[in-house]
Amino acid sequence: MESRCVEVVAGPAARVLETNAPLVVVATFNRVVNLASPEGRLVAVHGKDVFLTPMSLSIDSQSPWSGHCQWCPGMELARVPGALVCREVVLDLTEASIWHPGVAWRPLAPSGREWLARLLVACIPPGLQAAGAGAVLWGGGEPDLTAACRRLMAGLSSKGGAIGAACDLVGMGPGLTPAGDDVLVGMALAAWSWLTGPARDRTIVAVEAAAEWARTRSTVLGAEFLHHAARGDFSQPLLELANAAEAQDVTGVFARARTLVEQGGTSGVDTLTGMVMALQAAGQGCP
Fold first, then answer.
1. Among 21, 54, 136, 186, which lies 20 to 30 A Cα-Cα from 162?
2. 6: enclosing H helix or E strand
3. For residues 277 and 152, is the Cβ–Cβ distance under 8 A?
4. What is the DSSP string of 107-122?
């Protein structure tokens, strides 16, 4: 049996661990092992890396696969005082610190929102502008996804239809996190970080409804990201982008947006598109 020291635990993952319930391996990837609680909440185990999820648990090696541990779907880890334990590994929690993935509210004036929307659009490489939900900004792309995004923008710009349109996006598109879910996460980041008044309220309410809908209509991972986004919790790359935008650091925004674009197929483009949609909708109909 191998022992790994857990260095950092994200706040949502810490709340899962506080229940003292056993966790089960539900999915394994090159860099991450996903554990699930009996209630269905996820904990993402990974090595020394940026926190790519708001429910991360970081261990003291480069990968969960370091050494001889074989993570297999269905493997159960028991919660004991100070650790998670199974036949393969002990995850020692005694020295772990807590990382809080909540975004800070730094509202932007209309001119700031317009500036940021233009900058985020410029961060998407030409070769990806028609990929995933990015087609909403340039035309073309998958018709159903594009139409659903435009209905949501219209609903946010007026006084009705946003909740239904947001729920229509849930689970739309292929992938571990469907394109529609990624768009909604981006919109949530914009709302929690930069919007004010009715624009902020409508967007957050729409994402909250979509997150509830996602429990039965999306992938496990897509639903989990939406669950946290509805509560203002995001991955480290998204939080760093929000901080750079608040500081009006053009170079920082561009660098972090480009890093985001490189993640997971079209997920980064879809998330950036959601941010732009929320910023533009706020400018069209809400103060």
1. 54
2. strand 2-10
3. yes
4. ---HHHHHHHHHHHHH
Q: Is 128:269 a contact under the CB 8 Å cutoff? A: yes
Per the DSSP assignment, residues forming a β-bridge with 4 are: 91
Q: pLDDT tens, 16-34?
A: 999 999 999 999 988 899 9
Stretch 150-167: mean pLDDT, rounded? 86
Of 226, 107, 209, nearest in space to 162 by CA: 209
Reduced to 3 states (helix: H, G, I; strand: E, B; else coil), residue 217 is helix
Residue type, 7: E
24's enclosing H/E stretch is strand 23-28
Can you name the residues that pair with 89 across neighbouring β-strands?
A: 2
β-pairing, 89-92 vs 83-85, is antiparallel
d(CA 241, CA 226): 18
Query: What angle in degrees, to the nearest 10, is found between the helix axes of 179-193 and 197-217?
Result: 150
The CA radius of gyration of the chain, in Å to the nearest whole number, is 19
* Residue that the structure tokens 């219209």 belong to: 154
For residues 188 and 62, the model is more confident at 188
User: 3-class SS at 270?
Assistant: helix
pLDDT number for residue 286:
44
Q: Is 218 helix (H, G, I), strand (E, B) or coil?
A: coil
